[in-house]
Design a protein that fits this description.
single chain, about 160 residues, alpha+beta, three-stranded antiparallel sheet, 3 helices, globular
């Protein structure tokens, strides 16, 4: 089992309740010693799918979505020269969308379009591909106010 899977499958018990991973971050897999960051929480049933190329990840996303799971966190990284994808899914209902590989202008347009359709961004990933900044967005149904800022400084 990979170090990443071991990390993601780690369970903690807080006050007698088992908590599961909510999101994870992979800073750089080119180092000899991999380091990962994660946030755990108690909550509903979940699934983890990692170390997949895009076709494999998209197929699993469709399968799990059909089974009543919703993607809440997606990550992408390069390992051995190949772009990999991984995600965390929780049981859920309602509308959902996933858009991958968009330029900033296309991503911003999609965000506005989906916001008008009652979708709210749940997760965003930014990565470089062929020297260009690319965006991944995970949306779920919601009616709360939301603002999207990219490349903003600490002082807004």
């Amino acid at each position: 089992m990979s170090e990443l899977l071991q990390f993601l499958r780690t369970k903690f018990v807080f006050a007698g309740t088992i908590v599961w991973i909510l999101c994870f971050f992979i800073p750089n897999l080119s180092h000899a010693q991999n380091k990962f960051t994660g946030v755990w929480r108690e909550g509903p049933d979940h699934k983890i799918w990692v170390n997949a190329d895009w076709d494999g990840f998209e197929s699993k996303w469709r399968e799990l979505s059909d089974d009543g799971y919703r993607l809440v966190d997606i990550e992408t990284w390069i390992a051995v020269g190949i772009r990999n994808y991984g995600g965390i899914f929780i049981r859920g209902k309602g509308k959902y969308k996933l858009w991958v590989g968009l330029s900033w202008s296309k991503f911003s347009e999609k965000w506005k379009e989906l916001k008008e359709a009652g979708q709210r961004i749940q997760d965003i990933e930014i990565y470089i591909e062929n020297g260009q900044k690319r965006f991944i967005g995970v949306w779920r149904e919601g009616n709360y106010r939301q603002k999207l800022l990219v490349d903003a400084g600490w002082e807004l």
